[in-house]
């Protein structure tokens, strides 16, 4: 692989450090038969992230972390590959693979540049993975290259609205005020945090997806259930019941 870009190198070091904090959540998610999505664990029966028939399909998880989504896909009969930028996260994923006797390729690499031939997959998914931490102008065209015509891309990330309302201080929840301009938003370097995130206006996502050969099929604003619990401090349930704090994009590769 070519030399790492600055944001990829920074996110690699950041996620190698954070990996320990994701072990328990990864173990819980691997143990679940039914998928539950995002920070509020919205059940698959409600959100229908896997709207496709996935059995027998070739699937890739972009920024798989501990690879519990890959495990869910594998149990549904998909031939899945997980790629992640952090060897420490993949260490947990490999241990859980052995524990559950599920064997699928786990690749250490950057989802912006994946060593697979064109049109290798029918389904690509990212939950707070490449869709949050990789450069959209690099990972979206790469996902398009890897998908066969008719293939589907699904990703779940922070809502744009919540990103506008996030105080810069770590551990402080989203406010009811718009704290930064929407226009021009792309890369965010939160003060005092070594990680690099990417957040786009909805119109920018749509144009990028369409330019890359996708048709947008859906944009689902996630609403947690009354009483839902999250381990993350960046948004309260009261906030998330009123405004979307997460969004799921579904796009179809058309050409
Ligand atoms: C929050 S985890 C996502 C996994 C899981 N869905 C979760 O929510 O815990 C974010 C993952 O994205 C990975 N990541 C960040 N940048 C990436 C890139 N350019 N390519 C592949 N993976 C990347 C990180 O290493 C990390 O494991």
Total number of strands: 11
Strand fraction: 15-25%
The residue-averaged pLDDT reads 97
Radius of gyration: 17 Å
Global morphology = globular
In what order do the strands lie side by side in the largest sheet? 5-4-3-6-7-11-10
Q: Tally the helices.
A: 10
The hetero molecules present are: S-adenosylmethionine
Alpha-beta classification: alpha/beta
Helix content: 25-40%
- Uncertain stretches: none
Q: How would a textbook summarize the main sheet?
A: 7 strands, mixed
Topology order in helix (H) and strand (E) letters? HHEEHEHEHEEHHEHEEHEHE
Measured distance between first and last alpha carbons: 27 Å
3D architecture notes:
The strands form three sheets. Strands 5-4-3-6-7-11-10 form a seven-stranded mixed beta sheet, sandwiched between helices. Strand 8 (187-188) and strand 9 form a beta hairpin. By secondary structure, the protein is of the alpha/beta class. The protein has ten helices and eleven strands. The protein is globular, with a radius of gyration of 17 Å. Helix 2 (23-31) packs parallel to helix 4. The chain has helices spanning 6-18, 23-31, 44-47, 68-75, 87-100, 130-133, 136-146, 160-164, 202-211, 237-242; strands at residues 36-37, 42-43, 58-62, 79-84, 106-108, 121-127, 147-158, 187-188, 197-198, 214-222, 246-253. Bound molecules: S-adenosylmethionine. S-adenosylmethionine binds at residues 8, 11, 15, 22, 63, 65, 69, 83-86, 89, 110-112, 127-130, 133-134.
